[in-house]
Automatic annotation (TrEMBL):
This is F-box domain-containing protein. Residues 12-47 form the F-box domain. It comes from Botryosphaeria dothidea. It comes from the Eukaryota.
Amino acid sequence: MGNASETVFNTTELLELILSFANLGDLLSAQRTCQRWKAVIDGSIKLQRCLYILPDRRGADCYGLNPLLVQRFRFSRDARGYLSVDTNTEWQERVLSCPSASWRRMLVSQPPEPFALVGPPWRCRRPRCAFGDEVSCGEAWEVTAEPAPGRTKRRYFRNRSRHNRPWV
């Protein structure tokens, strides 16, 4: 019996298929199982897309925020399509101390969409910072981590895509 499972997990294509059904958190953890699993995950375009590290542009009608971000930050959405995020979380302290953390390489959304950091929608519609469509969480964090003096820690984002796909 041990030989069968060993054969399956030593077959790259089968391991990749099995891991493609894992949720984002489990897939991130699987990289720490052993060097072989990490090599398979790092070398798989399919798994890199599941991890939000490589873009997946296969014609989606809507796009989703990275579930890791949604889990760790408090997001809210208003009727005008603005998405706000409260960046004042305890989770930040631990995560920011590791500059090589994998979340920094992950894309903000899948498929990638351009977005802009804007002021509160009731005060300002001009972007303070515009991002292209393949911005990583680390890049977005570096720009938005510290509010301007006298500003709230809540951030407002607006979709800049010409596709006008909704957030999901």
